[in-house]
């Protein structure tokens, strides 16, 4: 009964969008009240890996197997389904061969969108976030590091490249907490640039919102909320320790928190099979973008980032495995939901 009430609230009153925005906003604001992060910095990577394990199981057992509709869309927008004869050991397919071709084409389009989403997020991460931050830090630290490293280099170009890489590595490893690279927010006083950084960090949140269902609360939604809470806290820890005023930080927090609900809102009204590009449902494209985003945050953001932090790697691995086992068990016991 409580689940039914929640699902009705989520469907009829934008309940899930409101909940995700509120949780994200509050957890991004929470670091403002925390003075010491020593103990938290030791626990946070383990929590991040547990969340990554949870999302990994969702990705493999729930999202990918069911990311494309089981219905086959035909030209008049009327869905056609497989029918099964209980007295036989085979399926009687009632749809035309063209529907099979269209379903196969939809799958290809979805996977291409997933690949483009993943490549785009990697490009943003490497070219805008990390690389741009390195360029900002280079001039500031070049003089101090020159005398330490000059004997390792044989040319000016090699020297600058190695110093830049070292600074990136130090910023990444010595970061207090977090499952994403947020240090660049501390190194800029430009509000416009900070907003671009926040959008770059969290654009995957928008993609993930595109695949959320308006009427149900599933393992996918739960996993995304877990990740959103951890990422919000990490961004808040850096944002509210930056040079910006409290009001500016609040506005940036609101902007970040709004991205996932925005994706959900778009999916709510345009994610049905009635909306198509050519013959491809918009939902296929949305799911493809979300798949690429999930692959990025699990394999390139959360797992490598948490393991690069200081701490017991065995405990981190245990957290990753436990998160996966818990999520996989829930999915298997409750049945797939997407």
From TrEMBL:
Keyword line: Membrane, Transmembrane, Transmembrane helix
Transmembrane residue ranges: 13-31, 43-64, 103-124, 232-259, 280-303, 315-333
InterPro entries named in the record: ZIP (IPR003689)
Localization: Membrane
Gene Ontology CC, one term: membrane
Domain of life: Eukaryota
Membrane topology: Multi-pass membrane protein
Entry's Gene Ontology molecular function annotations: zinc ion transmembrane transporter activity
Protein name, as recorded: Divalent heavy-metal cation transporter
Source organism per UniProt: Vairimorpha ceranae
